[in-house]
Amino acid sequence: MPADALSFNEKQFRQLIDTLWSQTLNPMWVCKVVQDDFEMVSANEAAFRVDANQKPGVLLSDVVKKSGHDNSVLAGYFTCLEKGEVVEFEQRPFVHGKEMLFRTLLVPIKNSRGAITHIWGTAYNLSDLLDAQLSLEQDKDALQRKLTERTQQLHAARRTLEELATKDSLTQIANRQFFDENLTRAVLRANRGKEPLALILIEADYFKRFNQRYGMQAGDESLQKIAQVISQIDLRQDDVVARFSGNTFAILMPNCEASDAERIAKAALQRVQELKIPHETSEVEGAKVMTVTIGVAVSPFGQITSDSLFKEGGNALDIAKASGHNCVRMTVL
């Protein structure tokens, strides 16, 4: 996906969601997970037109009973909660005495600790195909194609929303929010299992001077190249590479020994220099190309907090910059 396709700011993104919620003809609703049930939080006008019982505060089990829905509806919610993944199924409610056909999609919403707190739902009205489905056997293929097309559209929309929520729009690697969520989980895992945890902070050297000399466009392009080479280092599946702030990147490495963290940091140092991005205003001795300075913090046996790990990583980065930049310095807690 092109980078400019994800250049939404938060206000534009909220406006998009509000517009979809209020103007779509498809029902949308949100339920909160409660003990052995789900509580209605909100539903749009399209949902109320289908079922007026979907009022805030009402339990989903009561909505099912009052509206005469099939019990598979409630089962779909519990499946979504148990598996923690998207669930799709058909509903055939009676609206004003007429049987309708809906394709329902349930999406789990998780908090920063990974626990499912709410379930977002939407339904596509496919009732215009119901008569043909019931009366003409040969129309089954057409129905399936339309269902598949609609499902693909839903999946594409969901992927776009996920990318907006987790990716940095400039570099296309993880953003700060995604990194922070993974850091919280990694710290809990390290403390619980007394496992090592490593944090690598990578800062592009004299980046403000680079922008002043070569322009903001060149600065953005250099950050994209740095992000790309860092991401191509031999990292593991659980490692997270993110743009932490303007010219600073971070690598989170769960269950990683100090020697491996230092090896990855040195590889990042070398690969950025091998890009040979011209940087005539750099004060790094012997280098007129873009370089990075790296600080590494490693907690060998867990028993760490996110703040203390970042503090030690920042201290290591400061020591590296005081040592002349374009080097790696490591702190083992």
Descriptive notes:
The protein has helices spanning 10-23, 45-50, 60-67, 72-83, 130-135, 140-166, 176-193, 207-214, 216-231, 258-274, 306-322; strands at residues 28-34, 37-43, 87-91, 94-95, 98-99, 102-110, 116-125, 197-204, 240-245, 248-254, 292-299, 328-332. It has 2 domains: 3-166, 2-Layer Sandwich (Beta-Lactamase); 176-332, Alpha-Beta Plaits (2-Layer Sandwich), CATH 3.30.70.270. Residues 1-6 have low confidence and may be disordered. It is of the alpha+beta class and 333 residues long. Helix 8 crosses helix 9. It has a 5-stranded antiparallel beta sheet with strand order 2-1-7-6-3. Strands 9-10-8-11-12 form a 5-stranded mixed beta sheet, with helices on both faces. The relative contact order is 0.09.
